[in-house]
Amino acid sequence: MDRRFLRDLQKGTELMQPTFAKSISLPALLAITVSAVALAAPARAQDGVAADGDGGDIVVTARKARERLQDVPISVNALSGDQLRDRGAVDVKDVLRSVPGLSFSGTERGLGNYNIRGISTVASAPTVGIYLDDISLVTIATSFSGAFDPVFFDMERLEVLKGPQGTLYGGSSMGGAIKYVSARPKLNVIEGSVAAGIGTTAHGTASYNAEAVLNLPLVADKLSVRGGVFYRHDGGYVDNVAAGTVTNSRYSSTAPGYTPQAQPSLSTRNQANYNDADTYVGRLSLLWQPDESWSIRPAAFYQHYKLANPGQFFLGMPELTASYRIKQPTTDKAGIYSLAIDKELGAVQATSLTAYFDRKLDFVRDYSYFIGGLVPPLYPLTSRNLSASRTKTFSQELRLASNDPGARLTWIAGLYYSHQDDRLYQIAVTPGATPVIGTEVGYVGDTTTITKQYAAFGEATYKLLDNLDITAGVRLFQIKQIVDILGDGPFNGGLTQIVGRKSNEKGVNPKVGISYKVTRDNLIYASAAKGFRPGGPNRFQINPALCATDLARLGLTAAPNTFDSDNLWSYELGTKNQFGSSVLVNAALFYTDWKKIQQQINLSSCGFAFTGNAGSADVKGAELETRFNLTRAFQVGGTATYSDAKISTAALGTSAQDGDQVLAVPKWMLSGFASYSVEVADGWRGQIRGEYQYQSRSRRQFDRIQSVVFPGGVPGTAPNRAEFRQGYQVVNAFASVGDGETEVRLYLNNVFDVAPRLDTDLTGGSDRSTTIRPRTVGLEVRRRF
After folding, report:
1. φ and ψ at 446, to 5 degrees?
2. What's the CATH number where 120 sits?
3. Where does the signal sequence lie (predicted)?
């Protein structure tokens, strides 16, 4: 039934395609054009449900069944392959400012955290699930590892699911889920595309990209292969200069007044635009259909990302400059290997998804200023930190689903198992430090975490009336963790070792919803769902003597060995409305009651951190998404999100206070766009588009004050300059012309070259921050065949 539905959809949508595109099916266009990637583009706006801007519906699998986006009775934003291509999106961070309620902390690929609708955290367990073709890419998040970010290459669409998705997607999706859906091989169709582009960034160097995709039938009606390769170079825009200045807010050069300490960097490195990066991607998949009831799809996706140096710049120096002493490369390699099998069994469809996710993230960082701040006699020496993370995850999902979407009762039920082996090895070395601290190895840590998950889940929808549905679902789960920790070195307070620290949690995630279709294109829905995230052991053994100052400020004598699970109930009332092909208006109100929030607590006096439970929070908000086709050629629209996410009851042992904003949640997110298309020649059509995006400021840390050492070694405090992230606004524009086979696109991102300070860090011995990519202009050419 699933394949028949797809064939019927394809026939219907082909009739709506412009003349120049009728030689290529709509699914083919989505599959080919999604791989168009522009150069370093910041976020671009979503313009509604239309896949091609003139009425083609996007079909999503948010509930693990194919449904028209406007029919899904939950809040989902989806961007088709065409939309991703038009916006020049490289990864999900390039569209997040235009997806209502989606925000991000951290700017480096592979080291950040996503949050949806105020469910934000910088703790080790993410609140947003990341999926590629229903394969979980969730890993442990620490200061040395974050969310894995696949680039948009040969993908059919992106889906962002709002609110707890614990029924179908598990505990890591208590805030929502981000789903990447890759293009599948097609039988009996030879098609492909090639593309190349070049661009330049203000204050930086050139960027360029190239790619190729080919879909090739091997056996008529039975077997097809699809593969592609992708390369991208992102030019740098931060300069490293010798003999710079290091500002360290943990020390004051004056007393009684507070003046952050400034001293020579002692760097001898001069390198312009040193934060350039290279990305290599390869993808291969097969589709084998022995007969129409079978679909067997093995697939492999490999991504290799190399960042020459991080994009942090020093405060107290000219903008976009730093003065590090050594190279600081980052390498993020990931392989995703899967086997998906679908079998139609009459009125039931069976699905098996077997997957293996292997990620290796290594980076070197300059710890000279951090260690020199802890032990001033070591400041003239150069310190190097190596962090190596390796995550290997095996997962197996089995599910059965009803096979008639028009039936009065539709349902899905399944079993899930995963085994994740995560290891973090870290070593900090300072050659020449032995006379001062007795060794050159200041710290070494080796932490291994084994996590096993077991779950049984189900969800059913029953039509009370032809236009009134009720949905109920539940997930039963058990999560077991075992952590082994070894730490040594003077900055660890000597040798510590913990073997077999365990946690074992069981839980139930229920969900209920109701939806009413006023017409085919007008839907009202309401839902209530529970989300859950497991607790577990803290992954660092913190010496209380080394961190006594910050622990005392929190009212603690020692950091906790474990942290508790947190959970929430979320309630949503929404409506989805499409009025012909001219107007789209989607809106939602939501409220979330969040208990025992997991948050990372930073101890700036010693450089360690632990996960604690920061109390409870209430999240109240509203979302609006609109699109107006004023004429067939002229569109305007935008999105708005309001999130009032506040701590309602602060817990002891954290620096949160009642009424504080939840970390990394902007109160306001706004976007708007205007687009105009016109036929410029026989068979050639042009388009111009402008976009505006805004985020208000958000809280980065609960601390109002930070620990400071005044002259003479006198301890004290000073205001925390990293308490908030700045609000900012961005304008982007692009123009394109194409005939359905050839397309040329010119883009201009961050038109006014804004440079907000985003992730300011005052704990590393050198005050530093990050920003978005400066103004970037580029040109890309694409050819389909």
Report:
1. -140, 110
2. 2.40.170.20
3. 1-40
